[in-house]
Amino acid sequence: MESKEVRDKFLAFFKAREHTAVPSASLVPENDPSVLFTTAGMQQFKPYYVGAKKADQDFDSLNAVSVQKCVRTSDIDEIGDDTHLTFFEMLGNFSFGGYWKEEAIKYAYEFITRELGLIIDYVSVFRDEASGIPADTESADIWHRLDPTLKIKEHNKDDNFWGPTGEEGPCGPTTEIYINGVEVWNIVFNEYYKSRDGNYEPLKTKGIDTGMGLERLLVQIQNKNNVFETDLFEPVIEQIKSLSKNYDSKSARIVADHLRTAIFMIADSVTPSNTDRGYILRRLLRRAVRFADKLALSVGSLTDLVEVVENIYDQIYPELKTENSKLKTEIQNEESKFRETLAKGLKEFEKGIDPFILFTTYGFPFELTRELAAEQGKNVDEADFKTKLGDHQSRSRSNAEQKFTGGLADHSEVVIKYHTATHLLNQALHEVLGEGVEQRGSNITAERLRFDFSHGAKLTDEEKQKIEQIVNEKIEANLPVNFVILSKVEAEKTGARHLFDEKYGDEVKVYYIGESLNTAYSKEFCGGPHVEHTGVLGTFKIIKEEAVAAGIRRIKAVLQ
Ligand code: SER
């Protein structure tokens, strides 16, 4: 059975059991600053579990089913073995107060044994006296009633308790299905909400969240030894094999995995950068380049492999083909950028292994240096690297801050937050009122921000609401805030906003809010300081809008 049929079967099975099929959310989570990437199918449904949204108002029922694109990079060192991947698709069925353990277990059992004809090796249920959370004897009973011959193992909280994603959120005990010793299906009984202080509060509405990794399941269905032999990988591995002049299967697996993940990330609008998501993408691509070299693939082969991946997902994610030129350009650019320093970096590496120098001067991700060192049987000191990097970052921040002093009331945390909010407001005003808006003054205290700008008319309620909504969306998106120092001419070329009658030096600092300077939501000439991520700002609210002179309006706004 091919992967496409498995996805279709799964969706049809649950649709026939009163589930609404919901399309995969983007890999970049909307409105969830607790994680960088979508790591599980349940993530887009968090509001339904906590009662913030009502499932039956958005779906026809209280249940949903999806095939979700996911990224997890915490196990990046394991890639190359038989089961780990940085990108995977997760088949999941969900209930938000509809059904509970009995049905969830029955559905899973039926799907695995009848629809797919697979034989369950054993199942696991939660028991952990030390955790203070009651053992899940109910699930054990249900399994036993369904199949008295089934082997049931009891696992502790490390293995059979899931969530939350991020620091807080819904979570609960799990029951898991194993086939040939491999965990294929995780069924979570969301009955608690873990708060930031570490408490487990019972959820008002209990929820079901299940996740089954498609690639691992395919290994069983297609009777393969590992995920790279399934139809989702085989064509890529074959192509690498035919192009490689120095083939080894581990390197091929790493290239295939990392490239596929990079493709899906870029298609969801992530671009390589030095922060957050962009940095994870950069690391994957740079690691892929290095292993492509090990395989003696020719320069640029990664770009040639893009089409092979696109063809695999032709009917499922047609957007990969639509984005073909963007995918190729981003991958090509990152490869070229890395190659500018790779050879010199490798020479430096031979002289002596300093992961910090290799990172700052030659753009080697730390893991890469560690791998290169390990190949020579050497260790690198991660703690030392982190300390040096931390010092370096705070030094460059404070140097830059001294060089470009701006006019803030003080540098307290709250004033800094208002400062970043002012940049978001400035951009939102342009979006809503047009490019005719010009900043005429700004004043920030610990209580509020005040922003004066040119505009001929009183703002309507709709305009004010729209501005608030945009700013709050940018806050919720938890965008990174960074700066670059550029010559004044270069800085102007970036299109960053600045005041026309202000005297700037030959070098200016451009603060940008967003993943990279090119894709940033807001760009301004500014001395800083700013918060590191917009997510900390809270809720933005306009409290007053008035005229201060002919054609000049003033907005006062607060962060709540
Ligand atoms: N959230 C659980 C997991 O990711 C089940 O979907 O494994």
* Count of DSSP-assigned helices: 19
What best-fitting shape do the alpha-carbon axes yield? globular
Radius of gyration: 26 Å
- Which runs of at least 5 residues are low in confidence (pLDDT < 50)? 399-406
CATH-defined topology of the largest domain:
BirA Bifunctional Protein, domain 2
Percent of residues in helices comes to 40-55%
Keywords summarizing the entry:
single chain, 3 domains, nine-stranded mixed β-sheet, BirA Bifunctional Protein, domain 2, Threonyl-tRNA Synthetase, Chain A, domain 2, 560 residues, alpha+beta
Give an overview of the whole structure.
By secondary structure, the chain is an alpha+beta fold. It has three domains: 3-221, Bira Bifunctional Protein, Domain 2 (BirA Bifunctional Protein, domain 2, 2-Layer Sandwich); 233-349, no CATH class; 413-559, Threonyl-trna Synthetase, Chain A, domain 2 (Threonyl-tRNA Synthetase, Chain A, domain 2). It is built from 19 helices and 16 strands. Strand 8 and strand 9 (200-213) form a beta hairpin. Helix 9 crosses helix 11, helix 9 crosses helix 13 (324-351) and helix 10 packs across helix 13. Bound molecules: serine. Serine binds at residues 40-42, 92, 162, 186, 188, 209-211. Serine binds next to strand 8 and strand 9.
Summarize the structure.
Helix content is 42%, strand content 21%.
